């Protein structure tokens, strides 16, 4: 501290220490005496707690006797409640500090108990909490002498009286012991203060001699040695004399010596560093220039001199030193700022000096305070690199335009550029080889030959491309083989449909003939009924004839039913065949779609194959549409056949009724007129039903003819599809 740098202050401080020792002794005595007062009060209350717990025990026993003898307990409960409250309040004051009543009934402030005492008091508190709950139950108005809670409370009190008393006794003993220790501590403090005062007096005498006489003698001797020395040694130091005036003078002399020594060492180090930097710049392979803040060229190394002397005829490097930088800039071609002061960070550009290409980098030079000191400019000859870049650019441009025949010359290159050129030539050769092989392959594909594959020693992505193309050719072979097979199956299915249609047509014509016979029979029955009305006397004979005709009609109707069943079965077979054709057309469409995708992957060389695949897909779609029309017509024909079948069944029933009627006519001649009228109406219904069946039959004939035409059209389309796929030459194993 500054106040202790004076000798006078030190002696005043020593005197203050004497007075401080005395003051500490007095204050310590007062504090301990005051503490003794508080401890005495705490000891008194702790001792009272022992008496109080015995009092509470006696009051509890008295209350229990009064309760059991059913005497008055109001006064006893109030006394016990006051004792409980006093004990609880005193216990909390001893534990946590606070005000409590002493033995005279006055409130006194108690400090917080020490740890040892607190441990015993916590034990007292733990037992007291259980006992207090039991006591509160005994003085509560809800007390029941015959309940378990009453006897439980008595057991709790009996178990905790002794523990509370012993813990309170131990706490009081510890308090008393701690109080005695404080008295002993006060004696130690007083004796220590006396001893320190004697020691400080002796120390003051010794310090005066050490801090005044000896340091002054040493300083005078040291200054005389420095002033009389022929050569000053800055490494020599004076010893530390402390923080007073003598010490300040000694430190000041030492600081001056250190600064002189540091300045001398720094000068020598800077001189050595500058020498190393100049040697490094002079012998650097890169051209280097130094420009000051006035933009004057003040230095260039040997590499820079070589570049300038090689490319400048009128000026030499020596003539440009200490000249404005603008004079050198007139010989340079390239992007350059108007003034170097605009360059605040590292700046790179390309320059042309005569026939030499240079990579230029200008970096500002700053001191420790970020003040501008100048600029450093570096030149690197990149003429060879530029020529190689131009050659590579030419080859890469040709490759980008599709010409892979150009190559980079490797005879005049070394190192990295030789390796780069060789690898570029290898890339071009690999691409030219794969493109030639692809061109040959796609020419074969355009001619219809799908048996060729790519062959060659390719690596990496080119090997993957070769594998994918060969896999594509294999897939194309498989796809076209499936298309040819599907076309053959469609052709066979069309033949089957055509044959079935012919059979169905013949059956339909037969059905029409049967209906004509039925119509003729109905006409005969109508004539018979008219004759029966006119000639009732010939009723039996004519009824017998009508019965025979009815039997014949029933037979014809049965034949008609059988024929309709055959037509329905044929229609279902035609529907199954049509479904097969529809599935074949769907598979053909999928195969054509896959072929179109593979042709799209092949690019321009697969365009002709894509056209063929498109034609195949259109034929498959037309086949599917035709199959759908056939299925629709057959469904409609089946519906009408089912309707005709129902009408035929109805005709059979009607003819059965007619047969029964004629049998009754033979037996009941009396009712011949009524029976004739009913038969006439039934025959009219049959006539209408047969007319409808005849109309349905004619429609079925038309549907069968349409189905036959559709099957012929599908056969023609299958043949056309087969002819288109025959254009391609496939592998024999496909």
Short description:
The chain has helices at 7-68, 74-96, 115-138, 148-228, 245-282, 302-311, 317-320, 325-329, 383-400, 415-446, 460-534, 539-602, 607-667, 672-725; strands at 98-101, 107-110, 287-292, 296-300, 323-324, 332-334, 347-353, 356-366, 372-381. By secondary structure, the chain is α+β, with helices and mostly antiparallel strands.
List keywords for this structure.
4 domains; 734 residues; methylation; Beta-Lactamase; 7% strand; single chain; Four Helix Bundle (Hemerythrin (Met), subunit A); two-stranded antiparallel ribbon; alpha+beta; seven-stranded antiparallel beta sheet
Outline: flat
The amount of beta strand, in percent, is 5-15%
Helix-and-strand structural type: alpha+beta
Oligomeric state = single chain
Question: Any low-confidence stretches, pLDDT <50, length ≥5?
Answer: none
Largest sheet: 7 strands, antiparallel
What does the model show?
The protein is α+β, with helices and mostly antiparallel strands and 734 residues long. It has 4 domains: 213 residues, Four Helix Bundle (Hemerythrin (Met), subunit A), CATH 1.20.120; 51 residues; 99 residues, PAS domain (Beta-Lactamase, 2-Layer Sandwich), CATH 3.30.450; 264 residues, Orthogonal Bundle (Helix Hairpins), CATH 1.10.287.950. Strand 7 and strand 8 form a beta hairpin. Helix 2 packs antiparallel against helix 3, helix 3 packs antiparallel against helix 4 and helix 11 packs antiparallel against helix 12. The radius of gyration is 66 Å and the shape is flat. The model has no long low-confidence stretch (mean pLDDT 75). It is found in: Membrane.
